[in-house]
Amino acid sequence: MGFDLTPVLPELFLLVAGLVLLVVGVLTREGEAARVVATLSVLALVIGSIIIAASDKSPQLALGGHYVADGFSAFLKILLFVGAALAILLAQGFLHDRRIARFEYSLLVLFSTLGMSMMVSANSFLALYMGLELSALPLYVLAAFDRDNLRSTEAGLKYFVLGALASGMLLYGCSLVYGFAGTLSFDVLADAFGAATAERPPALLPLGAVVGLVFIIAGLAFKLAAVPFHMWTPDVYEGSPTPVTAFLATASKVAAAGLAVRVLMHPFGEWTAQWQQVVVLISIASMLLGAFAAIGQANIKRLMAYSGIGHIGYALVGVAAGSERGVYAVLVYLAIYLVMTLGTFGCILLMRRQGQYVEQISDLAGLSRQRPMAAAALGVFMFSQAGIPPLAGFFGKLLVFLAAVEAGLTWLAVLGVLSSCVAAFYYLRIVKVMYFDEAAEPFDTAVHPAVTGITAITALATLFFIVWPGPLLRAAGAAAAALVR
Amino acid sequence: MAEVLYVAQTVVIVLLIVVPLLLGVAYLTYAERKVIGAMQLRQGPMTVGPWGLLQPLADGLKLFLKETVVPSGANRGIFILAPMVTFILALIGWAVIPFGDGLVLADINVGVLYLFAISSLGVYGIIMAGWASNSRYAFLGALRSSAQMVSYEISIGLIIISVLLTAGSLNLSAIVRAQEGLWFVIPHFPMFMLFLASMLAETNRHPFDLPEDEASLVTGYNVEYSSMAFALFFLGEYANMILMAAICSILFLGGWLAPFGFVPFTWIPGPIWFILKICAVLFIFIWARATLPRYRYDQLMRLGWKVFLPLSLLWVVVTSGVLVAFDLLPR
Amino acid sequence: MIAGLAFYLFAGILIASAVMVVTSRNPVHGVLFLILAFFNAAALFLIAGAEFLAMILVIVYVGAVAVLFLFVVMMLDIDFARLREGFRRNAPLGLVIGGILLIELLLVAAAWRFAPEAAALRLQPVQPDGVTNTEALGRVLYTDYVYAFQIAGLILLVAMIGAIVLTLRDRPTAKRQDVAAQIARSGSVVTRRVPIGAGLAETGIARPPLPEAPKPKQVEHQGGGHH
Asked: Hey, is the C-beta of C47 within 8 angstroms of any chain B C-beta?
């Protein structure tokens, strides 16, 4: 076994960077610290991504088998690091305007990302749980980061209490599975339950282990904000500072989805039939709730919360397929979702009136006259999220539904298509408000260059994904193949 | 039958430890008054018996004969329980203290952890007393005291870790044996100094006796206590001092070992050396009380968290680094 | 035999005090019973031969966590009668949910079937070759589980940063003590060696002159009234 730390290099680098930046932040002058630490954190995340991209993609175990680095984790980690870096960049202007610019923001994002990257590399229930907690704890603090704002503290508290409950459920499920298998390691788990060998077909999972697995799925569904564990989402999304919401909606969900895929496909890959109906149920409920509940929303952050619930429903369709093709579709979906969502939050951060950030959908009226480019970008994101071709969002949905059809879940795919038609209604309503309603007051013209830049780049990526989809699809294909061996 | 004998034997040993200990507590109060008196150019107690030698007994008798008053607003059960907890905790720590080679009631292999656990429980007697008295002064004293004791426990824990690393065992007798040749006070001298100061804070003694600050709290958590209940607090506090002194001499001053391993010193038996070392540390307790002014509460906390904690943590790192680098790890 | 008796004694007190934690009317009593429960759990660990865990349970939970609990509960001003009102109202619903959970658990227990490999993988609490369990724990903790151990440390660090972020406020009016500046101060304080028993006059240390006391004002007396 030994202590070969090469596979852990990206995490190790982020960890050391985080600790060093903590000291840097404390020692730098008060006014400078936030900016310096943010810049260095983004740099650290970029270097981390480069290390992953350059590393060996063949599966390697490390640290007593609790950690695995393979193509699947590498793909997700790059997504996470990019998402986190963009969340830090998006935040700087906002935090400065709200007078809560403190260097701890970047550090907490950095540590949370570290936890997420440990999550997607987890190869045992112990590592899974520790990574999950490390990623969740900074998020609770970040949600309450605007600590003098009542809604922000409420968001933090709500997220914390419900998150602790979900952790409890997850842990209970892990302990049940451990009780029946006698091991925590994903590699050994399948054998312990009597996986298929040359002589015999796979044994049925013991009932206790199935109950445990359901608890684990419930705990992960909370992190994913999937129905019926979505109750926290609208309030937390609305109350948290907008860049934090962006981080919650992207990186956190991507990590949880990656973890769910790994748990379901790796140790329990042989027993697809035994967990499929749970995932299908969650998926349907999320798609429908995401489509219908969002219609009545007036606040755009709440709307994004419901939209995110719906998106997770679609992603879970791919998980329910339980095949390599399904995993591939989920990975592509997550990557596109991350880009679209970050872009949308960039647009939300562009909406300011008299120095105040506005969040109501009605406030968008007249955006197309005063800020045509911002309106165009938001329009692109809305069309893409609705799944209208030829934008990126369409391809994500297409792949997911194709995978479901291939796995014999045609009815699920049909349901998905129907619910995305309903969802298109509220996405298009936003476009209508932007382009056809009269403006009440003018928007501020001063903008933060980072926010504009990120919005522009993500909008272009969403728009022109069809031109050059190769690299993303190839990487996702390799990642899926690495997981489903 | 064998079990009955075993129980009887244990009871006798316990009495052999507890009775001298209580006598020691009584004469520690006498010594304290005499030493402080000498340092302040006074005589101390001189009236009862020759040189006032019977003074502690007279004090005890006085407390014993007074009426026990339970305040009407007090939470009766806890009010009475609190002094007992303090007193009992001060006594049970002695179960694992080795007085000589093999002279120990319970030679358990996590002795240090046991002592640490017992000393971390000491706070309960005080916090229970403060709360149950239903009095502002008492409660304030209890709050101060628990915050202070919890804070200093951390640095004590880290100091103990440095010693454990060097000794390679959690057993107290083994720690003493590891000091044959070189007492830990020499390689760990800075930690010895920190331990002395933390020890004062942990037992709520001068200059860290904020919990019983007469000037601002009219003696703090035990203000509502009288008679034997007060006496139990008093006994517990002084027994704790002796226990801490014993721990200090075991961890740093070589327990029962003679200072030099050759003839005139080895004639004197181990327990005598041990008691002499305890007396020396107790003298430091008294000395500090006679000479140092009381700390302010924020300074006390600052000292614990911002000075002692980083220093002791650093020393753990240094110790383990040196032990590994020069291949000095025990075993 | 003594071990058996001790086990039932500690287990009995443990369960009784756990029940008292939930049922006692006074929350402070509840916490104190919780502490008693921790103690007895530690004693059970001792009987099982896990002395390290027993001591750590006492040090960490009783010595640190429960103290903070006690702190908070003592300072809280909660009207527990009002909390109980809700309890009455919600009790039927709670009973129904509890009943469903119980039935589910019974169903699971009926179908309980251990994987055949589970028994072989079970670890032994007491090592046969005389290794103390402190050492045995240390060996596993710093080799097989070093990853989880390190992440746990990291989580604690993040918790600390989070607490500071959410609560630390720099008040401009706060006065901070600068110890270095105090120590570096010189000139205004002089140390002198004073022979024992000497008075101020003999040592030549002059006491600063007292400020002139203001002369009492003459008050005009009007008539013979008292002041």
From this structure: no
In angstroms, what CA-CA distances link A42 with A26, A49, A54, A89, A260? 18, 11, 18, 8, 27
Contact between A132 and A115 (Cβ < 8 Å): yes
Measured between CA atoms, how close is B295 to chain C, in angstroms?
A: 13
Closest CA to B188 of B318, B69, B284: B318
Give bridge partners of residue A122 from the DSSP assignment: A67
Residues C9-63: pLDDT tens digits? 999 999 999 999 888 888 888 889 999 999 999 999 888 888 889 999 999 898 8
Amino acid at B207: P
- Across B281-295, b (16+ Cβ under 10 Å) vs e yields bbeebbebbeeeebb
DSSP B303: I
> d(Cα A83, Cα A251) in Å, to the nearest integer?
6
Q: Where are the alpha helices (DSSP H) in C130-178?
A: 133-141, 146-167
Contact A143, A155 (CB under 8 A): yes
| CB contact set of A103 (below 8 Å; sequence gap of 6+) | A21, A25, A28, A33, A34, A36, A37, A38
Of B110, B121, B146, the CB nearest to C62: B121
Confidence bin at A158 (pLDDT 50/70/90): very high
Asked if this assembly's ipTM is beyond 0.85, the reply is: yes
Q: Give the number of other CB atoms < 10 A from CB of residue A343.
A: 27
Which of helix, strand or coil describes residue C125?
Answer: coil
pTM, whole model, 2 decimals? 0.86
| Neighbouring C-alpha atoms within 13 Å toward the C-beta of C107 | 10
Answer yes or no: do A15 and C152 touch at CB < 8 A: no
Domain boundaries defined on chain A = 268-485
Structure tokens at A441: 């007051």
Residue B100's φ and ψ, nearest 5 degrees, are: -160, -175
Instruction: Determine the length of chain C.
Output: 227
User: B326: helix, coil or strand?
Assistant: coil
For residues C133 and B228, what is the distance between their CA atoms, to the nearest angstrom? 42
Chain C residues interacting with chain A (CB cutoff of 8 angstroms): 104, 107-108, 111-115, 117-122, 143-148, 151-152, 154-155, 157-159, 161-162, 164-166
Judge contact between A392 and A473, C-beta under 8 A: no
